[in-house]
Design a protein that fits this description.
about 450 residues; two-stranded antiparallel ribbon; mainly alpha; 15 helices
Length: about 450
């Protein structure tokens, strides 16, 4: 007991010393968040507009000045350099907003997305991969996960602008060529996370599925679904996913769990396999048990779905909210919609829509800001996933008077493998045409 008290006292003293060393802006935000979640919700539409505006400022203020989006704004060190990985999947967010808003503002956002694409193409490795980490990070090597995220942006660029085909093919082909026979990617891991297999790389599979929509004749869908099959071997009976964290698989971030869940759902969207949907629900339902009534989701979770921390990883919260919205659309089960709305509202209440431009419309890594994910930083990918989830909520509210959510079993019949994932080798041209993929 005495050792515990001494340890606690030392921890408090270290925390006090760290606080005293913070610059004034960081100290002010620390005090603000320590008071608790703000009660003011800026509203969905205002929050989306402010989020997009902040992403534009992050592009303009990147310290590498290259057309990419700054990784973060830090209350301690200021703006960061461009981050290729997250710039990649920010692109479809910007394009979706441009189509949704239209007009001059939409046109400007569309042009921002094109600048991002042009920059990414300029830094692609000859073999097709993309670097890990932000600009300037070492070692400068191609990484599977980062390439998969950029592939999402390249595929959207092909569809929007009718360009970037070569870059998309090179990235997708490289992912197929470097995949192991069991569906896992092991050859080009990120040097910025703990070593080992990662089930959250189903988010890489999503990139291949987007490429497959552009080029259905290529083996991209087969490779993507092979990875999903491999990842689901690590799912426990309660829906928990092993090997699903950047650093500590015993208590993964909701961010990486959100990556995995979204990858599974994109596989369902591609195949419309009801068996896969039921499997996905096990993980989504486990996450539901961790959610508190006010929309707080602990930033790290144990295998029984209990929280291990008292801060929220805001990125993971809105990623998971988006997936719950999708599940509501696919199943019609109101519990998913209710949970997603509560989570979105919680994160919206952390957003400032006034004050200095560096933080207005931005989303913190953690709430409180001194939580252990992106401490004292506003992350570009947190803002991206926030915009996505709130945009989907807004669209669902508009559509709610026009029709009902789609239920399971109403999609295209599929051929099911023993793992419960469709065997794409048995797909024919007709089945792909039904899904709008083309023969």
């Amino acid at each position: 007991m005495m050792r515990g008290r001494i340890s606690g006292t030392l921890h408090s003293l270290r925390a006090l010393k760290a606080y005293r060393q913070l610059p004034p802006l960081a100290k002010a935000e620390h005090r603000h968040d320590r008071a608790g979640l703000p009660g003011q919700d800026p509203g969905i539409e205002r929050a989306i507009d402010e989020g997009i505006a902040w992403l534009g400022r992050a592009q303009d203020h990147s310290t590498s000045r290259d057309g990419g989006v700054a990784r973060h704004y830090s209350l301690i060190t200021g703006w960061g350099a461009s981050y290729p990985e997250t710039t990649g999947y920010i692109i479809p967010t910007m394009l979706e907003y441009a189509r949704w808003r239209g007009g001059e503002s939409g046109c400007q956002v569309r042009q921002r997305a094109k600048r991002m694409l042009d920059w990414l193409v300029s830094i692609q490795f000859p073999e097709g991969g993309f670097q890990g980490g932000p600009v300037g990070a070492q070692p400068h090597i191609p990484v599977t996960f980062n390439t998969g995220q950029i592939l999402i942006g390249l595929a959207s660029g092909v569809q929007e602008f009718g360009q970037y085909h070569e870059a998309m093919y090179r990235a997708a082909d490289w992912l197929v060529q470097t995949q192991d026979p069991d569906g896992c990617w092991r050859k080009h891991p990120t040097p910025f996370a703990a070593p080992g297999e990662k089930t959250y790389e189903t988010h890489v599979a999503w990139g291949l599925l987007e490429a497959a929509r552009v080029a259905p004749e290529k083996p991209y869908a087969e490779a993507a679904l092979a990875n999903v099959r491999w990842a689901l071997r690590w799912q426990r009976d309660n829906g928990w996913l092993d090997n699903c964290c950047l650093s500590d698989a015993s208590q993964p971030l909701t961010h990486t769990l959100g990556y995995a869940l979204r990858g599974f759902l994109e596989a369902y969207r591609f195949t419309e396999d009801a068996c896969l949907l039921r499997t996905i629900q096990k993980t989504a339902d486990g996450l539901l048990t961790a959610l508190r009534e006010n929309g707080f989701l602990p930033g790290c979770l144990r295998s029984d779905w209990s929280g291990t921390v008292e801060w929220a990883c805001l990125t993971g919260s809105v990623q998971i909210a988006y997936s719950w919205f999708l599940l509501y659309q696919y199943t019609g089960e109101l519990r998913y919609y209710t949970a997603a709305c509560a989570t979105n509202k919680y994160v919206r209440c952390t957003m400032k829509v006034d004050g200095i431009p560096e933080t207005r419309g931005a989303i913190k890594g953690s709430f409180p800001v001194y939580g252990q994910y992106g401490s004292y930083q506003y992350l570009n990918w947190a803002c991206k996933f926030f915009v996505d989830s709130n945009t989907l909520e807004s669209k669902m509210a508009v559509r709610s008077t026009r029709g009902k959510a789609k239920g399971p079993g109403q999609g295209t019949p599929t051929h099911i493998s023993s793992e419960g994932i469709p065997d794409v080798s048995s797909y024919n041209a007709t089945s792909r045409c039904v899904r709008g993929l083309g023969p």
